[in-house]
Automatic annotation (TrEMBL):
Name of this chain's protein: Uroporphyrinogen decarboxylase
Name of the top EC class for this enzyme: lyase
Biological source species: Flammeovirga aprica JL-4
Any one of the GO CC terms: cytosol
Free-text function comment from the UniProt entry: Catalyzes the decarboxylation of four acetate groups of uroporphyrinogen-III to yield coproporphyrinogen-III.
Gene of this entry: hemE
Protein backbone atom coordinates (compact mmCIF):
# COMPACT_ATOMS: atom_id res chain seq x y z
CA UNK A 1 0.00 0.00 0.00
CA UNK A 2 2.71 2.48 1.01
CA UNK A 3 5.24 2.18 -1.82
CA UNK A 4 6.70 5.69 -1.44
CA UNK A 5 10.26 4.46 -1.00
CA UNK A 6 10.12 2.29 -4.15
CA UNK A 7 8.74 5.12 -6.26
CA UNK A 8 11.37 7.50 -4.88
CA UNK A 9 14.15 4.98 -5.52
CA UNK A 10 13.02 4.71 -9.13
CA UNK A 11 13.40 8.49 -9.41
CA UNK A 12 9.68 9.33 -9.47
CA UNK A 13 8.21 12.45 -7.85
CA UNK A 14 6.23 11.56 -4.71
CA UNK A 15 3.77 13.26 -2.36
CA UNK A 16 6.34 13.31 0.46
CA UNK A 17 9.84 12.06 1.33
CA UNK A 18 10.02 8.43 2.54
CA UNK A 19 11.88 7.76 5.80
CA UNK A 20 13.48 4.78 7.57
CA UNK A 21 16.55 4.27 9.79
CA UNK A 22 19.56 2.07 9.28
CA UNK A 23 19.68 -0.41 12.20
CA UNK A 24 16.07 0.38 13.11
CA UNK A 25 15.42 -3.28 13.96
CA UNK A 26 17.16 -4.25 17.15
CA UNK A 27 19.16 -1.42 18.54
CA UNK A 28 16.74 0.85 20.30
CA UNK A 29 13.42 -0.83 21.01
CA UNK A 30 12.72 -2.39 24.44
CA UNK A 31 10.27 -4.65 22.55
CA UNK A 32 13.32 -6.05 20.69
CA UNK A 33 15.20 -6.76 23.94
CA UNK A 34 12.19 -8.72 25.19
CA UNK A 35 12.19 -11.01 22.13
CA UNK A 36 16.00 -11.24 22.19
CA UNK A 37 15.95 -12.32 25.85
CA UNK A 38 13.56 -15.16 25.06
CA UNK A 39 16.33 -16.98 23.12
CA UNK A 40 20.01 -17.80 23.72
CA UNK A 41 21.27 -14.80 21.79
CA UNK A 42 21.52 -12.84 18.58
CA UNK A 43 22.51 -15.73 16.32
CA UNK A 44 19.58 -17.88 17.44
CA UNK A 45 17.22 -14.93 16.91
CA UNK A 46 18.51 -14.49 13.35
CA UNK A 47 18.02 -18.19 12.69
CA UNK A 48 14.44 -18.33 14.01
CA UNK A 49 12.31 -16.99 11.13
CA UNK A 50 9.14 -16.32 13.20
CA UNK A 51 11.06 -14.17 15.68
CA UNK A 52 13.20 -12.49 13.01
CA UNK A 53 9.97 -11.52 11.21
CA UNK A 54 8.48 -10.20 14.45
CA UNK A 55 11.42 -7.87 15.22
CA UNK A 56 11.59 -6.79 11.57
CA UNK A 57 8.01 -5.51 11.78
CA UNK A 58 8.34 -3.85 15.21
CA UNK A 59 9.71 -0.54 13.85
CA UNK A 60 6.89 -0.37 11.28
CA UNK A 61 4.26 -0.68 14.02
CA UNK A 62 6.03 1.27 16.77
CA UNK A 63 7.89 4.00 14.87
CA UNK A 64 5.93 4.45 11.63
CA UNK A 65 8.81 4.02 9.17
CA UNK A 66 8.13 3.74 5.41
CA UNK A 67 10.12 0.50 5.00
CA UNK A 68 11.08 -2.60 6.97
CA UNK A 69 14.61 -4.03 6.78
CA UNK A 70 14.94 -7.75 7.30
CA UNK A 71 16.39 -8.62 10.71
CA UNK A 72 19.68 -10.40 10.07
CA UNK A 73 23.34 -9.38 9.88
CA UNK A 74 25.96 -8.83 7.21
CA UNK A 75 28.02 -11.57 8.91
CA UNK A 76 25.74 -14.41 7.83
CA UNK A 77 27.73 -14.47 4.56
CA UNK A 78 31.09 -15.41 6.13
CA UNK A 79 29.21 -17.95 8.23
CA UNK A 80 27.61 -19.48 5.13
CA UNK A 81 31.05 -19.59 3.48
CA UNK A 82 32.38 -21.67 6.37
CA UNK A 83 33.40 -19.21 9.09
CA UNK A 84 30.92 -19.31 11.99
CA UNK A 85 30.71 -16.27 14.30
CA UNK A 86 29.60 -15.50 17.82
CA UNK A 87 27.99 -12.25 18.92
CA UNK A 88 29.68 -11.41 22.22
CA UNK A 89 27.47 -9.32 24.52
CA UNK A 90 28.60 -5.67 24.61
CA UNK A 91 31.66 -6.44 22.44
CA UNK A 92 30.32 -7.44 19.05
CA UNK A 93 31.11 -10.18 16.55
CA UNK A 94 33.90 -12.72 17.00
CA UNK A 95 35.09 -15.37 14.51
CA UNK A 96 37.03 -18.27 16.12
CA UNK A 97 38.56 -19.05 12.68
CA UNK A 98 39.78 -16.47 10.18
CA UNK A 99 41.34 -16.43 6.72
CA UNK A 100 45.10 -15.82 6.73
CA UNK A 101 46.55 -17.76 3.81
CA UNK A 102 45.82 -19.50 0.53
CA UNK A 103 45.48 -22.75 2.49
CA UNK A 104 42.59 -21.21 4.46
CA UNK A 105 40.80 -20.43 1.18
CA UNK A 106 40.62 -24.16 0.50
CA UNK A 107 38.62 -24.60 3.72
CA UNK A 108 35.84 -22.19 2.70
CA UNK A 109 33.40 -22.15 -0.20
CA UNK A 110 31.04 -19.92 -2.14
CA UNK A 111 27.83 -19.98 -0.10
CA UNK A 112 25.10 -22.39 -1.13
CA UNK A 113 22.36 -19.90 -0.43
CA UNK A 114 19.30 -22.15 -0.32
CA UNK A 115 20.84 -24.58 2.16
CA UNK A 116 23.14 -22.28 4.16
CA UNK A 117 20.91 -19.19 4.35
CA UNK A 118 17.45 -20.73 4.03
CA UNK A 119 16.54 -19.30 7.44
CA UNK A 120 16.90 -15.72 6.15
CA UNK A 121 14.82 -16.52 3.06
CA UNK A 122 12.16 -18.07 5.29
CA UNK A 123 12.17 -14.95 7.51
CA UNK A 124 11.70 -12.77 4.41
CA UNK A 125 8.72 -14.84 3.23
CA UNK A 126 7.09 -14.71 6.67
CA UNK A 127 7.73 -10.97 7.01
CA UNK A 128 6.20 -10.28 3.61
CA UNK A 129 3.13 -12.26 4.56
CA UNK A 130 2.72 -10.47 7.89
CA UNK A 131 3.45 -7.01 6.43
CA UNK A 132 0.71 -7.71 3.91
CA UNK A 133 1.82 -4.86 1.65
CA UNK A 134 1.87 -2.18 4.37
CA UNK A 135 5.43 -1.08 3.50
CA UNK A 136 8.19 -2.49 1.26
CA UNK A 137 10.84 -4.83 2.68
CA UNK A 138 14.54 -4.04 2.26
CA UNK A 139 16.99 -6.93 1.85
CA UNK A 140 20.70 -6.32 2.43
CA UNK A 141 24.25 -7.60 2.43
CA UNK A 142 27.66 -6.28 3.38
CA UNK A 143 29.88 -5.02 0.57
CA UNK A 144 32.69 -7.47 -0.29
CA UNK A 145 35.41 -5.23 1.20
CA UNK A 146 33.64 -4.90 4.58
CA UNK A 147 33.00 -8.66 4.73
CA UNK A 148 36.67 -9.28 3.78
CA UNK A 149 37.66 -7.14 6.81
CA UNK A 150 35.79 -9.41 9.23
CA UNK A 151 36.96 -12.65 7.58
CA UNK A 152 40.63 -11.64 7.90
CA UNK A 153 40.48 -9.78 11.20
CA UNK A 154 37.93 -11.99 12.99
CA UNK A 155 36.42 -9.12 14.94
CA UNK A 156 35.87 -5.38 14.91
CA UNK A 157 38.87 -3.07 14.69
CA UNK A 158 39.51 0.67 14.50
CA UNK A 159 41.92 0.31 11.58
CA UNK A 160 41.34 -3.16 10.09
CA UNK A 161 45.07 -3.07 9.44
CA UNK A 162 45.41 -6.87 9.15
CA UNK A 163 42.85 -6.82 6.34
CA UNK A 164 44.48 -3.82 4.64
CA UNK A 165 47.90 -5.42 5.02
CA UNK A 166 46.69 -8.20 2.68
CA UNK A 167 46.11 -5.64 -0.08
CA UNK A 168 49.75 -4.58 0.15
CA UNK A 169 51.33 -7.98 0.71
CA UNK A 170 49.13 -10.35 -1.29
CA UNK A 171 46.82 -8.62 -3.74
CA UNK A 172 46.14 -11.76 -5.75
CA UNK A 173 44.96 -13.71 -2.72
CA UNK A 174 42.88 -10.67 -1.70
CA UNK A 175 41.13 -10.65 -5.08
CA UNK A 176 40.44 -14.39 -4.86
CA UNK A 177 38.71 -13.99 -1.50
CA UNK A 178 36.85 -10.83 -2.61
CA UNK A 179 35.57 -12.71 -5.67
CA UNK A 180 34.30 -15.61 -3.53
CA UNK A 181 32.50 -13.14 -1.26
CA UNK A 182 31.03 -11.34 -4.30
CA UNK A 183 29.75 -14.56 -5.87
CA UNK A 184 28.16 -15.54 -2.54
CA UNK A 185 26.61 -12.08 -2.14
CA UNK A 186 25.08 -11.96 -5.62
CA UNK A 187 23.46 -15.36 -5.11
CA UNK A 188 22.28 -14.30 -1.65
CA UNK A 189 20.73 -11.02 -2.80
CA UNK A 190 19.01 -12.71 -5.75
CA UNK A 191 17.56 -15.29 -3.34
CA UNK A 192 16.37 -12.51 -1.00
CA UNK A 193 14.60 -10.85 -3.94
CA UNK A 194 13.04 -14.15 -5.00
CA UNK A 195 11.81 -14.63 -1.42
CA UNK A 196 10.19 -11.17 -1.48
CA UNK A 197 12.70 -8.36 -0.81
CA UNK A 198 11.41 -5.26 -2.65
CA UNK A 199 14.74 -3.40 -2.75
CA UNK A 200 18.25 -4.06 -1.50
CA UNK A 201 21.04 -2.16 0.23
CA UNK A 202 24.77 -2.86 0.25
CA UNK A 203 26.54 -1.74 3.45
CA UNK A 204 30.22 -0.84 2.98
CA UNK A 205 30.71 0.18 6.59
CA UNK A 206 34.53 0.29 6.52
CA UNK A 207 34.91 1.92 3.09
CA UNK A 208 36.35 5.07 4.67
CA UNK A 209 39.57 3.38 5.82
CA UNK A 210 40.75 2.73 2.25
CA UNK A 211 42.68 5.16 0.11
CA UNK A 212 40.83 6.27 -3.04
CA UNK A 213 43.25 4.16 -5.14
CA UNK A 214 42.66 1.04 -3.05
CA UNK A 215 38.93 1.63 -3.11
CA UNK A 216 39.00 1.68 -6.90
CA UNK A 217 40.99 -1.59 -7.04
CA UNK A 218 39.66 -3.68 -4.12
CA UNK A 219 36.16 -2.36 -3.44
CA UNK A 220 34.40 -0.64 -6.33
CA UNK A 221 34.84 -3.39 -8.97
CA UNK A 222 33.05 -5.86 -6.70
CA UNK A 223 30.24 -3.41 -5.87
CA UNK A 224 29.88 -2.90 -9.62
CA UNK A 225 29.62 -6.65 -10.19
CA UNK A 226 26.79 -6.80 -7.64
CA UNK A 227 24.95 -3.76 -9.05
CA UNK A 228 25.27 -5.13 -12.59
CA UNK A 229 24.00 -8.56 -11.56
CA UNK A 230 20.96 -7.36 -9.60
CA UNK A 231 18.49 -6.02 -12.13
CA UNK A 232 15.22 -7.02 -10.45
CA UNK A 233 14.77 -4.29 -7.81
CA UNK A 234 16.18 -0.85 -6.82
CA UNK A 235 19.65 -0.93 -5.24
CA UNK A 236 21.24 1.36 -2.65
CA UNK A 237 24.99 1.56 -2.04
CA UNK A 238 26.05 3.00 1.32
CA UNK A 239 29.83 3.36 1.54
CA UNK A 240 30.46 5.00 4.89
CA UNK A 241 33.28 7.54 4.87
CA UNK A 242 34.04 7.03 1.18
CA UNK A 243 33.41 10.62 0.12
CA UNK A 244 36.10 10.06 -2.53
CA UNK A 245 34.03 7.27 -4.13
CA UNK A 246 30.79 9.18 -4.66
CA UNK A 247 31.53 9.83 -8.31
CA UNK A 248 32.31 6.16 -9.00
CA UNK A 249 29.19 5.04 -7.13
CA UNK A 250 27.23 7.63 -9.12
CA UNK A 251 28.46 5.97 -12.32
CA UNK A 252 27.55 2.48 -11.05
CA UNK A 253 24.32 0.69 -11.78
CA UNK A 254 22.78 1.48 -8.38
CA UNK A 255 19.66 3.65 -7.97
CA UNK A 256 20.42 5.30 -4.64
CA UNK A 257 23.64 6.54 -3.05
CA UNK A 258 23.74 6.52 0.76
CA UNK A 259 25.44 9.52 2.37
CA UNK A 260 26.93 9.77 5.84
CA UNK A 261 26.69 13.02 7.79
CA UNK A 262 30.15 14.23 6.75
CA UNK A 263 29.15 14.37 3.10
CA UNK A 264 27.90 17.68 1.76
CA UNK A 265 24.52 17.28 0.09
CA UNK A 266 24.91 19.85 -2.71
CA UNK A 267 28.36 18.51 -3.58
CA UNK A 268 27.00 14.94 -3.54
CA UNK A 269 24.21 15.92 -5.93
CA UNK A 270 26.82 17.23 -8.37
CA UNK A 271 28.99 14.12 -8.08
CA UNK A 272 26.37 11.37 -8.30
CA UNK A 273 24.99 11.63 -11.78
CA UNK A 274 21.35 12.34 -10.91
CA UNK A 275 20.97 9.37 -8.57
CA UNK A 276 18.56 9.33 -5.64
CA UNK A 277 20.34 10.17 -2.36
CA UNK A 278 19.72 8.62 1.06
CA UNK A 279 20.66 10.06 4.45
CA UNK A 280 22.16 11.83 6.22
CA UNK A 281 21.37 13.29 9.64
CA UNK A 282 24.15 12.86 12.20
CA UNK A 283 22.91 10.00 14.46
CA UNK A 284 24.02 12.12 17.46
CA UNK A 285 21.52 14.83 16.50
CA UNK A 286 18.91 12.55 18.10
CA UNK A 287 20.47 13.23 21.52
CA UNK A 288 19.07 16.78 21.32
CA UNK A 289 15.71 18.00 22.64
CA UNK A 290 12.55 17.41 20.61
CA UNK A 291 12.76 20.97 19.29
CA UNK A 292 16.41 20.50 18.31
CA UNK A 293 15.70 17.20 16.55
CA UNK A 294 12.89 18.87 14.63
CA UNK A 295 15.11 21.79 13.62
CA UNK A 296 18.00 19.57 12.51
CA UNK A 297 15.63 17.34 10.51
CA UNK A 298 14.08 20.30 8.70
CA UNK A 299 17.53 21.70 7.91
CA UNK A 300 18.49 18.32 6.44
CA UNK A 301 15.32 18.17 4.31
CA UNK A 302 15.95 21.70 3.02
CA UNK A 303 19.41 20.64 1.82
CA UNK A 304 18.09 17.64 -0.15
CA UNK A 305 14.98 19.30 -1.53
CA UNK A 306 11.68 17.50 -2.21
CA UNK A 307 12.76 15.02 -4.89
CA UNK A 308 15.19 12.11 -5.19
CA UNK A 309 15.67 11.80 -1.44
CA UNK A 310 15.13 8.93 1.01
CA UNK A 311 15.42 10.37 4.53
CA UNK A 312 17.64 8.43 6.95
CA UNK A 313 20.45 8.99 9.42
CA UNK A 314 24.04 9.14 8.18
CA UNK A 315 24.75 5.76 9.86
CA UNK A 316 22.85 3.28 12.02
CA UNK A 317 20.83 4.64 14.94
CA UNK A 318 22.85 4.43 18.19
CA UNK A 319 21.69 1.94 20.84
CA UNK A 320 21.06 4.52 23.59
CA UNK A 321 18.82 6.82 21.54
CA UNK A 322 15.35 7.42 23.02
CA UNK A 323 12.75 5.93 20.62
CA UNK A 324 10.64 9.07 21.23
CA UNK A 325 13.37 11.14 19.52
CA UNK A 326 13.31 8.75 16.59
CA UNK A 327 9.57 9.36 16.31
CA UNK A 328 10.16 13.12 16.25
CA UNK A 329 12.65 12.62 13.40
CA UNK A 330 10.21 10.43 11.45
CA UNK A 331 7.16 12.63 12.01
CA UNK A 332 9.09 15.77 11.09
CA UNK A 333 10.14 14.17 7.79
CA UNK A 334 6.56 13.17 7.06
CA UNK A 335 4.98 16.52 7.87
CA UNK A 336 7.64 18.96 6.67
CA UNK A 337 8.48 17.17 3.41
CA UNK A 338 4.82 17.23 2.39
CA UNK A 339 4.77 21.01 2.84
CA UNK A 340 7.92 21.34 0.72
CA UNK A 341 6.03 20.21 -2.39
O1 LIG B 1 19.02 -2.39 10.07
C1 LIG B 1 18.55 -3.26 10.82
O2 LIG B 1 18.05 -3.00 11.91
C2 LIG B 1 18.48 -4.69 10.33
C3 LIG B 1 19.41 -5.60 10.93
C4 LIG B 1 20.91 -5.35 10.89
C5 LIG B 1 21.77 -5.81 11.93
N1 LIG B 1 23.04 -5.60 11.53
C6 LIG B 1 21.32 -6.43 13.19
C7 LIG B 1 22.22 -6.46 14.35
C8 LIG B 1 21.72 -4.80 9.90
C9 LIG B 1 21.33 -4.13 8.58
C10 LIG B 1 23.07 -4.98 10.31
C11 LIG B 1 24.22 -4.58 9.50
C12 LIG B 1 25.58 -4.65 10.05
N2 LIG B 1 26.10 -5.56 10.93
C13 LIG B 1 26.63 -3.78 9.65
C14 LIG B 1 26.51 -2.70 8.62
C15 LIG B 1 25.83 -1.48 9.10
C16 LIG B 1 26.65 -0.63 10.05
O3 LIG B 1 26.15 -0.38 11.14
O4 LIG B 1 27.73 -0.18 9.64
C17 LIG B 1 27.79 -4.17 10.37
C18 LIG B 1 29.15 -3.53 10.30
C19 LIG B 1 27.43 -5.31 11.16
C20 LIG B 1 28.32 -6.13 12.04
C21 LIG B 1 27.84 -6.14 13.45
N3 LIG B 1 26.68 -6.76 13.89
C22 LIG B 1 28.47 -5.53 14.58
C23 LIG B 1 29.75 -4.74 14.54
C24 LIG B 1 27.65 -5.80 15.70
C25 LIG B 1 27.90 -5.45 17.15
C26 LIG B 1 27.57 -4.05 17.49
C27 LIG B 1 26.13 -3.62 17.16
O5 LIG B 1 25.96 -3.09 16.09
O6 LIG B 1 25.22 -3.85 17.96
C28 LIG B 1 26.53 -6.53 15.23
C29 LIG B 1 25.41 -7.00 16.07
C30 LIG B 1 24.02 -6.72 15.65
N4 LIG B 1 23.56 -6.74 14.37
C31 LIG B 1 22.95 -6.44 16.53
C32 LIG B 1 21.82 -6.28 15.72
C33 LIG B 1 20.42 -6.01 16.17
C34 LIG B 1 23.02 -6.38 18.07
C35 LIG B 1 23.18 -7.75 18.60
C36 LIG B 1 22.35 -8.09 19.82
O7 LIG B 1 21.15 -7.91 19.84
O8 LIG B 1 22.97 -8.61 20.72
Amino acid sequence: MNDLILRTARGEKTERTPVWLMRQAGRILPEYRAVRNSVSGFVELCQTPELAAEVTIQPVDLLGVDAAIIFSDILVIPEAMGLPYEMVEKRGPFFPNTIQSEADLQKIRVADVESDLGYVLEAIKLTKKELNGRVPLIGFAGAPFTIFCYMIEGQGSKTFSKAKKMFYTNPEFSHQLLQMITDSTIAYLKAQIKAGADMIQIFDSWAGILSPEQYSVFAMPYINQICDAITEVPKTVFAKGAYFAREAIGRSNCNTVGLDWNMDVAESRMLTNGKVLQGNLDPCALYGSNAEVEKATKAMLDKFGPDKHIANLGHGVYPDIDPEKVKVFINTVKEYSEKMR
